[in-house]
Design brief:
Order of helices and strands: HHHHH
Structural class: mainly alpha
Number of strands: 0
Number of helices: 5
Distance between the termini: 11 Å
Strand content: under 5%
Radius of gyration: 14 Å
Helix content: 55-70%
Shape: globular
């Protein structure tokens, strides 16, 4: 397949999991880079989904750097793309709800990250 994934699911390309592990470690810039490699090769809904992950990682990076309005904008843009249909139904529902909570808090003038945990990205098994 052109985008590097076999029909068997997310396990076919270790860069997807590498990005997830980096994201969950709070290394948002590095997660962005790992997923960007995949994004460049992807097409269709998968490309849109990966762009959503990249934008969410960039949003949390902005939040870490004290830019809550920019963070909220990127988080909202990323969430919109996660609904592209490339993700397994329901697999990211709790994650998306937690990201949305952070985006709304930052949009409302909430302070940037002060040690409260960011949402953890669940396994991406089944991502087309």
């Amino acid at each position: 397949m052109k985008d590097g994934m076999k029909d068997g699911g997310a396990g076919a390309d270790p860069r997807l999991e590498k990005g997830r592990a980096l994201f969950n470690a709070g290394r948002f810039f590095e997660a962005h880079d790992a997923w960007e490699e995949l994004w460049r090769e992807a097409v269709g809904p998968r490309r849109t989904f990966l762009q959503g992950l990249i934008q969410i990682a960039a949003g949390f990076l902005k939040d870490q750097r004290g830019a809550p309005e920019s963070a909220a904008r990127l988080l909202e843009m990323g969430l919109e793309k996660l609904g592209s249909g490339a993700a397994p139904a329901g697999a990211l529902r709790d994650f998306a709800a937690a990201v949305d909570d952070v985006a709304r808090l930052r949009r409302g003038g909430g302070a940037a990250h002060r040690g409260d945990p960011y949402p953890l990205l669940p396994p991406l098994d089944g991502v087309k």
